[in-house]
Design brief:
heterodimer; A: about 1000 residues; mainly beta; Immunoglobulin-like; 5-stranded mixed β-sheet; 51 strands; globular; B: about 500 residues; mainly alpha; Serine Threonine Protein Phosphatase 5, Tetratricopeptide repeat; 3 domains; two-stranded antiparallel ribbon; 11 strands; about 45% helix
Chain lengths: ~1000, ~500
């Protein structure tokens, strides 16, 4: 008996021991039945966990008291499964793309998507992975309803304009606030050479998500800097599990989207002669002059003329560039430490040499759990970007191939027979025509180089004082050094006369910030959920630069200042601004049904006058999760229904520093001595520009989330605009910055997601469109138009064209005509004939993204579009000079020009020096203003995931190969190279077409 | 709980102390500009402020280029060949293509007014310093106002009453506050009142400045007298023009002297023209206006005299037209002006002035170009701009004397110039008289000051039409385009301001 008892108890003990350490195994699959690798399996309530292997299997030892396992994986809904007495648990994880459990970062806080009360758009990593773009903001284009992203030009890593819900200001900036992992970025640029976008420091593939805080209520917590919206970027972080590596590379080519047909040498000679005759020369004199313009004697025979060559400079200038990207990341973590590390090299060449972009970047993010209450997080981003700058950006430099290549007279050879460049100064050869610079030689010889070294990092510590209170302190640094080297080689036209010219510049930007927040979160009586936040913040931005110029280099091999014989200039400046802020937020939710948020921020800024340094910004937000109501809970086909309303205030401080002070500048010179002059009138009342916005939103999701729709409508009013008030120049000043005027933006945004197929064949389609209307509602002193800019008028949008309307060609005379204010025809429109024509911001815009997949094959098709925007086509205007000066011109103009009375044609008769007798300038009025409307196949990606079974034996988690095309197709009626740009389109490098091949290996 | 309270207390203390120190952090004054309260309180401050007023003259809109080249492009002596597409509309007298000195000139005038307010309080300055400051500032105010009035208004010797909208805005106050500036709605003074203010300033400067003061780069009594003879000529005050010119010619210890046929060309090749009485000084290489808009770049492609076969330097946009070349006694150029390479030898008459005109570099053909500016100060595009020089004194006086009925006096001055300009010139036995005498004076003026910004005003003040064959222009003196548009922003919203006729 005793023996038996001993045996029994031994058995029981064994069982208990076995129970204490029993093993559960199983397989994790997704809702299509595919195995989920690297899913995390953790015993609920502990940190003990394992990961699933490549075919989804896991095996975990669990303690006796374990009740449930928590399964989670990237982009999957986390699931808790009770164990009971099972030893095998197979789990299917649902894709969490549209999961309501998804969290959204709202600034100093993270909330469940369900609790969001404001207009926030989230873009996740999957949407923007592996795009061959140097800059993450470009990835937002077309993907966030209501956000206009426009590249200034095709310079890789160049300027972007990001406008959230319309422009709210006349003179202050419209750039949103960018916050990367809690560090607010300085978006000033410091290059004299090229556009070195400060957002280039981050490899977009290191991004986990981008949140766009669109309405003033959402942005309000960032106070005075949030007037143009806020873009929050969160980088990837490590997850608990063994180290996982991802290697990704892609390679491809950039090429032009198109070229313009221009005249042959013979056609140009004919047109030039015609221009001179029309302007009054005799045919004989005109022919002599036209021949002389081509460098030919007046005795040149027709036979000789017929055999003159035509060289295609555009073909030479517009070649192909290379894109190359390689990156390796590692992530993982244990109970106390998690990490994400990545290194990347990225090269992107424009199709017009030598402009390029080369970035090396290192990124590390680590989190240390010192104990269960105390966590330290550290993010470090180091990058160095090298850019060969174009000869000039968006201006009319003769050596700029984007500007000049189509206008160089085609009789000029590019190379000599021996392969050297034709027409270099000092060679005895001269290029004929206005554009007399050999742009190919300039591209090779000129050294315009910009190096941007950037560090963005933060260290934060958070301490859980009690389960409810968390204290978090953060220090961040955003440091940027830009070094420009601008060497005009003595062999080229602009450097020859002075034996080479050099400008070296160094620009240092230091942006320090620190904040401390106290967070409170508690659920009272299970239904009242309260969270509160209080914080303080200090930020200081400092910029310093200096420049030295010299000329006179003994050889083109000597390219630094010590070799210069003559110093020709020095300059340098220092500038700084600081803000100090206190802020707080209170959130309340009743059973997840009724949600209320209130936020307040008080900001003080050094930019404003002593009378008004501080400003207070508040917001109130409500949401009703109707789906949580019992009467809707029963209705199965509705998965989610939420109504939102918010009202908020935010400020805009994007003006220069010390504009409030009355100052004497010291930048003038006379007689080897300084000149000081009153540079600015003081305004001690200068203060914030204020944005107030109401937003109504609806989120609805039906049929098992197959269709979900988000609609937002807003009315945004900006008042106390930081306006550069015009003064009569007779005062010695032309403007002063004051808080005057009002502007209104209204808009409607739709984002629709449809998942018609979600089985083996999946198709997910996301479409968004925004309608946007802007109106200046008030100026000052009752003015209906701004004196300094008559196009800014009460009742009309900012960015309007206010000019006289082009009326085409008079069939009788061939002269261009315009409409006067009464609709009558005139050759000489006056100021009184101007009217509002349209404006430079689109009225409808958005994107349409489709993801299709079948087995391992996936296809992404992304269209982006813009409607309702007008722009001056400066490049086209210059190329339409019709031999009125000694530049080549467009064939389309040549073919459509007026020649004889009665011709009904769009192009006026050609005329030497362009403007006809007693006529307005040839480009006056709306003649060269066109619609930029376009629909563009922005991205097309075809990928193939090699089946797990094939790669398993190589211990790989996954291999994906893909081919990607950018800008493959465009619908547009824009007359010159490309409609996607900002500015007046003078000599900019246009957008390009990219095709890349990629390989991604996970192991 | 106790521990928490201590932590919260520490936190609160931290927040409070941070808040206090941060308030100080929000005060960040400029380190690049001076606070207005200290700028004009020292001797050197006043000197620097005066330098700034001179420096505005260097601008492209003023004597950097436009007051010479834009006006000559509008007149009847030049052809804009479109090599860099510059000055084409001006050359065709297109509406709106004219000088634009309004804002820059009033900037300078405001600075003058502020400095005139501030200088009496400078403690350590001597009476001589103060007299010089006031003299230079008043000379400059007269000078800026005169450039404004001769451009934006009719010249008193020839007005079109039905289109005459008066003189210019006379501003004698310095603006210090936003409120004062925003509340300023100026109106145009009459033509007479405008000239009266100019005379008041000019007489003050004549009395305050020493004969040569600081040399030709700054205002001096000599410069003020020379300017006075021009102003009086424009105003039709013949005796005053005569007396001012005579005073300038006979001033002892003045600046420079008239060149003759022996040193005329070398005078133009020197960095400082020996005839210069007042010039705008581009003292350092970095101040030149560069390859597109400097005077040298505008007028010539040559890097040195005779270098038509070597590398092109400037744009050479504005060249003499056939009329001027013929008047200068040059022949051998094609009718259309553009010459295929190689250019043939030109034939020159005995007028020494035509030696400054020669074939330029081939760039859409060779053109005969003016070489008065060729980077004479030691680097490409680097030249001073001579505004007042000796030859003008005699030509002003000749014209004033002719108008006042003193034909022998006019004849004497005319011949003095011709003797200095024509090699082997002999005074004709029979003097010219009447219209022929005036025509010859104006012709000498045109030849003497070709591309020096005089011709347009000579036509304007004498009511002469601008007639050109290439481009074909026949602009009577009554045409509205003779006067520029006052910047529209000066008129918008100001009920007191009157725009010029036709705009």
């Amino acid at each position: 008996m005793r023996k038996q008892l001993v045996l029994l108890s031994g058995f029981l003990l064994c069982s208990i021991l076995m129970l204490a350490q029993r093993t559960v195994t199983g397989k994790v699959t997704d809702d299509k039945g595919n195995p989920v690798a690297n899913a995390s399996v953790v015993v609920s309530g502990t940190t003990k966990g394992v990961s699933s292997n490549a075919d989804g299997h896991y095996s975990i030892q669990i303690p006796a008291n374990a009740k449930a396992l928590v399964f989670s994986s990237v982009d999957m809904e986390t699931q808790e499964v009770s164990i009971g007495n099972q030893t095998q648990l197979n789990v299917t994880l649902k894709s969490s793309d549209k999961s309501l459990q998804e969290v959204v970062i709202t600034g100093y806080q993270t909330v469940r998507k369900k609790d969001v009360t404001a207009a926030i758009t989230k873009i996740s990593a999957a949407e923007i992975d592996n795009l061959p773009i140097p800059n993450f903001a470009q990835a937002i284009q077309g993907r966030a309803a209501g956000v206009i992203v426009a590249a200034a030009n095709g310079v890789p890593g160049g300027s972007l304009s990001v406008i959230i819900r319309g422009v709210g200001s006349i003179n202050a900036g419209s750039t949103p606030l960018y916050v990367v992992d809690g560090v607010q970025l300085n978006t000033g640029t410091g290059s004299i050479n090229t556009q070195n976008n400060p957002l280039n420091f981050l490899n977009p593939d290191d991004i986990e998500s981008i949140e766009v805080l669109k309405d003033a209520a959402a942005a309000s917590i960032y106070g005075a800097r949030a007037g143009n919206g806020v873009i929050l970027v969160t980088t990837k972080k490590g997850r608990i599990g063994k180290p996982k590596f991802t290697f990704n590379t892609y390679y491809g080519k950039t090429s032009t989207l198109g070229k313009m047909d221009v005249l042959t040498t013979q056609q140009w000679l004919e047109l030039r002669t015609e221009a001179l005759v029309n302007a009054g020369q005799t045919p004989a004199a005109a022919r002599t002059t036209a021949l002389a313009n081509l460098g030919l004697p007046s005795t040149t025979t027709q036979g000789k003329i017929d055999s003159l060559p035509t060289y295609n400079w555009q073909d030479e200038a517009f070649s192909k560039g290379t894109i190359l990207n390689a990156e390796l990341s590692m992530q993982g973590g244990s109970q106390n430490v998690s990490y994400y590390l990545s290194g990347s090299y990225s090269k992107n060449e424009a199709f017009i040499a030598p402009t390029n972009f080369v970035r090396g970047a290192l990124f590390s993010k680590t989190s240390f759990k010192v104990n269960s209450n105390f966590t330290i997080e550290n993010a470090l981003s180091l990058s160095t970007v090298g850019q060969n700058a174009p000869y000039s950006i968006g201006n009319t430099g003769f050596g700029n191939p984007a500007y000049a290549s189509a206008m160089i007279l085609p009789i000029n050879p590019i190379y000599n027979p021996d392969g050297t460049y034709f027409g270099l100064p000092g060679s005895g050869q001269a290029m004929v025509g206005t554009f007399n610079h050999n742009i190919k030689a300039i591209g090779e010889y000129v050294k315009y180089f910009t190096r941007t070294n950037q560090f963005v990092g933060s260290l934060s510590a958070s301490y859980k004082i009690t389960p409810e209170f968390t204290l978090r302190s953060m220090v961040g640094l955003d440091y940027r050094n830009t070094i420009d080297h601008r060497y005009q080689d003595p062999r080229i036209n602009d450097g020859y006369a002075v034996s080479g010219r050099l400008s070296d510049q160094a620009d240092f930007n230091t942006n320090f910030q620190t904040n401390t927040t106290l967070n409170f979160s508690k659920v009272f009586k299970t239904v009242h959920s309260v969270n509160a936040l209080a914080g303080i913040e200090f930020r200081r931005d400092q910029n310093q630069w200096f420049e030295a110029d010299g000329q006179g280099f003994p050889s083109y091999l000597l390219q630094y200042l010590s070799a210069a014989s003559t110093p020709s200039g020095v300059s340098g400046q220092w500038s700084a601004s600081a803000t100090f802020s206190q802020f707080g937020k209170l959130g309340y939710s009743y059973m997840g049904k009724y949600i209320f948020n209130y936020s307040i921020r008080r900001d003080g800024s050094s930019r404003f006058g002593s009378n008004h340094k501080f400003g207070v910004f508040q917001s109130a937000q409500f949401a009703w999760n109707a789906k949580e109501e019992s009467f809707l809970k029963r209705i199965k086909f509705i998965n989610d229904l939420k109504l939102r309303y918010s009202f908020g205030q935010a400020g805009n401080d994007q003006i220069g520093n010390v504009l409030y002070a009355q100052l004497y500048g010291a930048t003038r010179l006379y007689g080897n001595a300084s000149g000081i002059f009153p540079s600015q009138l003081g305004n001690p009342d200068l203060t914030w520009e204020n944005r107030e916005e109401s937003n109504v939103g609806l989120d609805v999701s039906v049929w098992k989330n197959r269709i979900s729709l988000t609609v937002d409508a807003y009315k945004r009013i900006n008042k106390d605009l930081l306006l550069s008030r015009a003064l009569y120049a007779t005062t010695g000043f032309t403007s002063i910055t004051q808080n005057l005027g009002k502007m209104q933006n209204t808009g409607l945004e739709f984002a629709l997601t449809v998942n018609p197929f979600s089985g083996k064949f999946r198709w997910s389609s996301t479409f968004n469109i925004a309608f946007q209307k802007n109106k200046v509602t008030e100026l000052y002193d009752g003015l209906q138009a701004l004196p300094s800019d008559a196009s800014i008028r009460v009742g009309y949008p900012i960015g309007s064209f206010f000019t006289s309307e082009w009326a085409g060609v008079n069939p009788a005379t061939g002269r261009g005509m315009w409409y006067d204010i009464n609709g009558n025809l005139t050759y000489n429109p006056s100021a009184a004939d101007r009217k509002i024509i349209g404006n430079i911001y689109p009225s409808k815009f958005g994107g349409w993204n489709n993801t299709l997949s079948y087995k391992g094959v996936s296809l992404d098709v992304f269209f982006q579009y813009e409607y309702g925007r007008l722009r001056t086509d400066g490049q086209y205007a210059q190329m339409m000079r019709m031999a009125g000066t000694t530049v080549n011109t467009l064939s389309s103009g040549y073919n459509s020009r007026w020649r004889n009375p009665g011709d009904i044609v769009p192009t006026p008769r050609t005329f030497n020096a362009m403007a006809d007798y007693n006529s307005a300038g040839w480009g006056s009025g709306t003649r060269y203003i066109f619609k930029t409307d376009y629909v563009r196949l922005k991205q097309l990606t075809l990928g193939y995931d090699i089946p797990a079974s094939l790669i398993k034996k190589y211990k790989l988690d996954g291999i994906k190969v893909y081919v990607q095309g950018m800008n493959l197709w465009t619908y547009s009626k824009w007359p010159s190279y490309d409609p996607e740009f900002t500015g007046d389109n003078y000599g900019i490098i246009p957008q390009s077409k990219n095709i890349t091949f990629g390989l991604q290996v996970r192991f | 709980m106790k521990r928490i309270n201590i932590k919260l207390l520490l936190l609160t203390a931290g927040v409070v102390s941070l808040g206090t120190s941060c308030k100080k952090q929000l005060d960040i004054p400029s380190r690049n500009s001076l606070d207005a309260n200290v700028a004009l309180t020292t001797k050197s401050g006043i000197e620097y402020a005066i330098n700034s007023v001179y420096s505005i003259l260097k601008r492209e809109t003023h004597y950097g280029r436009d007051l010479f080249s834009v006006t000559d492009a509008m007149a009847d002596i030049a052809f804009a060949n479109g090599r860099s597409s510059r000055l084409l509309s001006e050359n065709k007298n297109t509406s709106g293509a004219n000088v634009g000195i309004w804002a820059g000139s009033y900037d300078a005038i405001n600075e003058i007014n502020l400095t005139l307010d501030a200088y009496p309080a400078i403690g350590d300055a001597t009476a001589a310093d103060k007299a010089r400051w006031e003299g230079e500032l008043k000379f400059l105010r007269a000078f800026y106002n005169f450039d404004l009035v001769r451009n934006y208004a009719y010249i008193p010797t020839y007005t079109v009453p039905s289109q005459d909208k008066g003189g210019i805005v006379i501003n004698l106050q310095g603006f210090k506050t936003a409120a004062a500036a925003a509340g300023y709605f100026p109106s145009r003074a009459t033509l007479a009142a405008s000239y009266a203010q100019i005379w008041s300033d000019l007489y003050a400067s004549i009395n305050l400045l020493s004969n040569s003061n600081r040399g030709r780069n700054y205002a001096s009594k000599h410069a003020a007298l020379a300017l006075g003879s021009r102003i009086a000529l424009y105003e039709g005050n013949w005796t005053r023009s005569d007396s001012m010119a005579t005073a300038a010619i006979t001033l002892s210890g003045g600046i420079g002297s008239l060149t003759n046929t022996a040193n005329y060309v070398s005078g133009w090749r020197a960095a400082d023209h020996p005839e210069g009485i007042f010039q705008v000084w581009f003292a350092t290489l970095g101040e030149n206006l560069g390859v597109n808009t400097s005077l040298a770049a505008t007028h010539t492609t040559l890097s040195a005299p005779g270098a038509w076969a070597s590398t092109r330097q400037g744009q050479g946009d504005l060249v003499p037209n056939g009329f001027l070349l013929t008047q200068l006694g040059i022949s051998g150029f094609p009718v259309g002006l553009a010459q295929s390479p190689p250019p043939p030898a030109l034939t020159y008459s005995s007028d020494i002035r035509n030696k400054l005109f020669e074939w330029g570099v081939n760039a859409g053909g060779h053109y005969v170009e003016c070489t008065k500016w060729m980077g004479k100060s030691g680097g490409p595009n680097w030249d001073n701009t001579v505004v007042l020089r000796w030859a003008e004194l005699y030509l002003n006086r000749a014209e004033a004397r002719y108008r006042a009925g003193d034909e022998p006096g006019a004849w004497a001055d005319l011949n003095l110039i011709r003797l200095a300009r024509y090699v082997g010139f002999t005074v004709p036995g029979v003097p010219l008289s009447g219209q022929a005498l005036l025509d010859e004076i104006l012709k000498q003026r045109m030849l003497e000051f070709a591309f020096e910004g005089q011709r347009f005003y000579d036509l304007k003040r004498n009511g002469l039409a601008i007639v050109k064959t290439n481009p074909a222009v026949n602009l009577p003196a009554t045409d509205y385009r003779v006067l520029p548009r006052i910047p529209q922003s000066e008129v918008d919203g100001n009920p007191n301001m009157v725009q010029n006729f036709g705009y």
